């Protein structure tokens, strides 16, 4: 398993490529901008993109999801309640913050606790609402992709549509209770580790 982290777009959103090097299959997580850069990174890893995974539906995480779907013919996947959010330019922040309509279509919906594979790499879906109602974290053996729930010694804001501070606190408890010391691959900021977050993140 190999992870390539890319910082894309004017807001500095983290996009990740999760690759099973043996099977030469990968997933793109949160394609917020610069699709050519994302595809070039996948090609350098010698991996074929199998899925596009969304941690949540904010515009800076979904901006190029539709385009990549059209280019690659692979499904865009998100939590079961987040499809409507991603398709709504008023909810997902694009009209509010960018004065531009950004939406995407979700083709496969996940349930909490569902497990799927990227090649031979198991990925478990953990519902982590708070930043948005349908936010999820993707748990792999070595890393957790937390979106804007937990990110580089900080957390996501709760004052945008479907955000909820009480739900965010409960989601952080779920993440803090995970076993081991996986890498924390958040939606913005540096990649950290769970133990480092417990030591340095005041919200955890």
Describe the fold and architecture.
The protein is globular and about 40 Å long. The protein has 7 helices and 14 strands. The strands form 3 sheets. A 6-stranded mixed beta sheet has the order 1-2-3-4-5-6. A hairpin with a 2-residue loop joins β7 (115-118) and β8 (121-127). With 204 residues, it is an alpha/beta fold. The two termini are 27 Å apart.
Quick recap:
It is built from 7 helices and 14 strands. It has 204 residues and is an alpha/beta fold.
Layout: helices, strands, pairs:
Elements: E1 2-8, E2 13-20, E3 25-29, H1 35-44, E4 48-53, H2 59-62, H3 65-72, E5 76-79, H4 82-86, H5 94-98, E6 108-110, E7 115-118, E8 121-127, E9 136-139, E10 143-147, E11 150-151, E12 154-155, H6 165-176, E13 183-186, E14 192-193, H7 194-200
Give a count of the beta strands, DSSP E runs of length 2 or more: 14
Give the topology string: H per helix, E per strand: EEEHEHHEHHEEEEEEEHEEH
Cα radius of gyration in angstroms: 15 Å
Integer average pLDDT: 97
Alpha-beta content class: alpha/beta
Q: How many helix segments? A: 7
Strand content: 25-35%
**Which segments are poorly predicted (pLDDT under 50) over 5 or more consecutive residues?**
none
Main sheet makeup? 6 strands, mixed
General form? globular
**Helix share of residues?**
25-40%
Q: N-to-C terminal Cα separation, in Å? A: 27 Å
Strand order of the largest sheet: 1-2-3-4-5-6
Give the key terms.
204 residues; alpha/beta; six-stranded mixed beta sheet; 7 helices; globular
């Amino acid at each position: 398993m190999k992870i390539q982290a890319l910082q894309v777009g004017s807001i500095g959103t983290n996009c990740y490529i999760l690759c099973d090097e043996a099977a030469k299959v990968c997933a793109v997580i949160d394609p917020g901008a610069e699709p050519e850069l994302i595809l070039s990174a996948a090609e350098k890893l010698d991996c074929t993109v199998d899925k596009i995974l969304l941690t949540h539906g904010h515009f800076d995480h979904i901006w190029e999801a539709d385009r990549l779907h059209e280019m690659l013919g692979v499904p865009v996947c998100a939590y079961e309640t987040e499809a409507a959010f991603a398709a709504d330019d008023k909810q997902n922040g694009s009209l509010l913050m960018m004065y531009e309509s950004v939406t995407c279509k979700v083709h496969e919906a996940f349930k909490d606790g569902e497990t799927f594979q990227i090649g031979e790499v198991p990925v478990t879906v953990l519902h982590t609402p708070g930043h948005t109602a349908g936010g999820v974290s993707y748990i792999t053996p070595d890393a957790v992709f937390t979106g804007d729930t937990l990110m580089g010694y900080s957390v996501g804001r709760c004052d945008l549509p479907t955000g909820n501070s009480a739900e965010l606190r409960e989601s952080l408890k779920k993440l803090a209770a995970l076993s081991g010391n996986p890498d924390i691959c958040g939606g913005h900021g540096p990649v950290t580790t769970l133990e480092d977050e417990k030591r340095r993140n005041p919200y955890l």
